[in-house]
Amino acid sequence: MKPTSDILADILDEVRPLIGQGKVADYIPALAQVPNDKLGIAVYTNQGDVITAGDAHEGFSIQSISKALSLTLAMNLYQPDELWRRVGKEPSGQAFNSLIQLEMEKGIPRNPFINAGAIVIADLLQSRLSAPRQRLLEFARQLSGEAQLVYDKVVAASEMMHSDRNAAIAYLMRAFGNFDNEVLPVLNNYFHACALKMSCVELAKMFSYLANKGVSVHTGEPVITATQSKQINALLATCGLYDGAGEFAYRVGMPGKSGVGGGIIAIVPGEMTIAVWSPELDPCGNSLAGTRALELLAQRIGRSIF
Amino acid sequence: MKPTSDILADILDEVRPLIGQGKVADYIPALAQVPNDKLGIAVYTNQGDVITAGDAHEGFSIQSISKALSLTLAMNLYQPDELWRRVGKEPSGQAFNSLIQLEMEKGIPRNPFINAGAIVIADLLQSRLSAPRQRLLEFARQLSGEAQLVYDKVVAASEMMHSDRNAAIAYLMRAFGNFDNEVLPVLNNYFHACALKMSCVELAKMFSYLANKGVSVHTGEPVITATQSKQINALLATCGLYDGAGEFAYRVGMPGKSGVGGGIIAIVPGEMTIAVWSPELDPCGNSLAGTRALELLAQRIGRSIF
Amino acid sequence: MKPTSDILADILDEVRPLIGQGKVADYIPALAQVPNDKLGIAVYTNQGDVITAGDAHEGFSIQSISKALSLTLAMNLYQPDELWRRVGKEPSGQAFNSLIQLEMEKGIPRNPFINAGAIVIADLLQSRLSAPRQRLLEFARQLSGEAQLVYDKVVAASEMMHSDRNAAIAYLMRAFGNFDNEVLPVLNNYFHACALKMSCVELAKMFSYLANKGVSVHTGEPVITATQSKQINALLATCGLYDGAGEFAYRVGMPGKSGVGGGIIAIVPGEMTIAVWSPELDPCGNSLAGTRALELLAQRIGRSIF
Amino acid sequence: MKPTSDILADILDEVRPLIGQGKVADYIPALAQVPNDKLGIAVYTNQGDVITAGDAHEGFSIQSISKALSLTLAMNLYQPDELWRRVGKEPSGQAFNSLIQLEMEKGIPRNPFINAGAIVIADLLQSRLSAPRQRLLEFARQLSGEAQLVYDKVVAASEMMHSDRNAAIAYLMRAFGNFDNEVLPVLNNYFHACALKMSCVELAKMFSYLANKGVSVHTGEPVITATQSKQINALLATCGLYDGAGEFAYRVGMPGKSGVGGGIIAIVPGEMTIAVWSPELDPCGNSLAGTRALELLAQRIGRSIF
């Protein structure tokens, strides 16, 4: 069955009662102020159709979803062996910002989707790009077809004000020789990427290359190779949902990436890209209603990679 | 493209030079004696075709591959909430027999495919079956269509002689209230399951239900529901390859389960079940040449869940 | 100033209000039944004087205090290098029954006073003594001058019924090659040692050799050398109070050993041996009022090793 | 027996063959250049006598020995409860610069003598002193009676160039709310304290208050109270030698503090302060020949707190 706006609206109605059972991210004031009852979903098919329901056109802070975009950019700039000796490909089995594992494993983060790994990716972008922050923004604008896309400066500044743990992570990696640039500028870029403000529709369009063998459905241009696209999906499936990747695979059955802003993207390879948004999070830091919406969608349209 | 015996033979030729670069499991003498140059592969399609190359008909110790079978049996005996409060669904991010995480997480193993998780499954089977060891053997015989299937008693006894770490795991879980029966009989059953002796062909047939929405291709009978089949595949994809699940997903792109006997099964949902065997292991404990063979097969026949 | 029975009685009066603020050990029923308001103290001087107050003549379960006795016996049976390659001499920095550190440090316990270390000592005694349980009892009888001393069989049996964590510890050490005998008999001996029932007076007499250069004040016989006596005191000072050794040194300033039965022994080298008993424990597992009583005694009589 | 210069010279002769079996600290170039064959010892008695042998008058980088001085200064500025809720009093059971324990224990360092604890102390000094770096230097000059005492600017700068791990520690504590000032200025002060250049004679004089109930033997002025002096000695005995405190207590039997510059101070309460220097370190980071010299001295003069 194909997704329709009726199906999407039904799903949102079914998950809406979950609102109130999760917890909006509050580690920075800018995120804590987002109304907890926002709820939106967008599907972007490989044919270019956009199907939506709820607050699908309203921008929110994409947070860690940006890690999939940054990785894509890094895979364009580095050879695989250059990239993968700096960061691993394995699930972490721990909270997303733990230093314990990072110390035990000598400063090599487990994967590019935990904070440590994304900070290494930001360090890699810093080393090869003259203006990495601007470049990432242009990349996002181009892929989403939304030329007005901006960083939310208030969110970025708020993150920077609460960056102690991420600074600890970066300095620890530098102590192990796995960080090449100055810490603060790299963190600042990293936080700007997290502070990209995008809607479900924009997100689904931006990541359409992951459902389409590396070719952006929106632009028709190759972003990465088909093989790289599969590789990113594999990493998303095993590591994309913090310490809830197994549960997400079990329930939803699609590669995905979540952010503490309450957004999640999910990929049906060969068919469509999905983005959902509901700010309240479960204990793993993934959108509570968003995850459930994706689980229902997978059931209704009968899609799963498994 | 469909797999043919020529393709499979070509792949085995291509991976054979890897033999000598891995290490045969030697923690028990019975495994250490297996010749390191054994190499076999079998594909069992959902249409019932068997395609093979190399030592595909020779039996070997399936070891941890049995954990997928035991889980299937337990999912038949227990309601989901009964089962999943005893064991988690998340990758461990650690070596397969670590006690550190188990203590930190209060005796609840991360997933059913690490040792601790499989021992909990064995404890669950013990509680609900009058003769769990015999029942598992019959289950394996029925699904593989091989009535002569036996436990390798020498391997099982050798495991039992070297069971201290697994006994420590079981006693620790019992200290946390997550183990209900006597330790030694449960371990003995667990080791017997690991000591099932099967060939690639038999393995591919036995697990065909995972590629066929829960229905055994060989018997035509439902083993589990289609949803349960997806769930097991999801767990295999995120947790099935010890601490190498991410790398396996990245390179091979199929749900799989490995054993230290050098076997790996891999699933192409909706199409086929694959089993490969080469005794030498990589540092994560997965068959070195076997993983490479699956990677090549995925490329040649153009299959991946991603 | 010398300790007098008046000083001791005053101190007990001063600490009595603490009763109700700690928690009687309840991991086995036999310990949980001990009245929480028991309170006693005994001083045994190197001149052979006995000074007491409160319930100093009533027997209680000495629990981990026995670890100092077992170590003394083992130091009589083994050369230093034989002994100290099986167990370390460093504080653990962790709860007394943690497996995490034991796994990280390859089955070598940090010191003889955490459970793992005491279990290794029990394994060593088992290897060199034909009847280790009887031998330890005779050793305790001889040193305390109390021929009627017995193991509390109810406590020992209750410990054995709740031995899962200690069994896990023993099996893990065996997996690392640091345990030579069968697990259960050794644990049984270990639990019997913990179940020695002794009064404060008997304890102070038994350990008088630690205050008297290795010579038992009661028997006048050398138990260990003067150097060994200093070594045991050094280990008690750094490792004798579980994860509260630093606090105890800071407040009391004497080598000591506590047990979850609420007893503590403390040594003033060259002068006296002290034993105190109050069943309620602080969060580290040390007697709450007992520690405070020792702190006050150290202040009143002006004794400290620092 | 009293220490004499002959006894000290004999001891140095006896330990000299150990030179070559340890390893000079090389994590910063400035330390790596120190000749490995330097060897000196000084005893400063509570009567004001100075007894020396070898290179006892040559200055070296005192490194972590400064942590005992900084703690003394902080104990003058803060009430006990203000101080000890920021840092613990327990041995760490881990390498001196580990972040693992710090994260598990929510940013509260185990004791003031591991790096994290000393950095908290530096943060406390920063909060209450207008010029903490100058104040500490004056404190050291006054106590040692050496008005020319200086920070080795080359060492301090070299430390600052290799400060990534310590920056990670400070940022992690700040993330847990246990660090109040800007990270880099505090680290800079901390490194300057480590870079104090002092001889064995100067060190023994500076710390004489720890052997003399808080009163500086050199100046006759109280530095801290007698109780505080005992408390610092207690912390030195349990935590002063990194992860070798138990071994040091077992062999030497005196409270002590070591530095990776190869210096160690040791206290005989009521009698004397000792300082020894030999740059090569054992695997725990303590001076190899220095520890052995103190062990021999303790035997020859028959002193031990145990």
Automatic annotation (TrEMBL), chains A, B, C, D:
Keywords: Acetylation, Hydrolase
PANTHER family: GLUTAMINASE
Binding positions for substrate per the UniProt entry: S64, N115, E159, N166, Y190, Y242, V260
Membership in a protein family: Belongs to the glutaminase family.
One Gene Ontology biological process: glutamate biosynthetic process
GO molecular function: glutaminase activity
Pfam families tied to this protein: Glutaminase
Domain of life according to the entry: Bacteria
Catalytic reaction list: L-glutamine + H2O = L-glutamate + NH4(+)
EC number: 3.5.1.2
Subunit structure and binding partners: Homotetramer.
Organism of this sequence: Vibrio ostreae
Protein name: Glutaminase
InterPro entries, per the entry: Beta-lactam/transpept-like, Glutaminase
Enzyme class: hydrolase
Lineage, highest ranks first: Bacteria, Pseudomonadati, Pseudomonadota, Gammaproteobacteria, Vibrionales
Signal sequence segment: none
Gene3D superfamilies: DD-peptidase/beta-lactamase superfamily
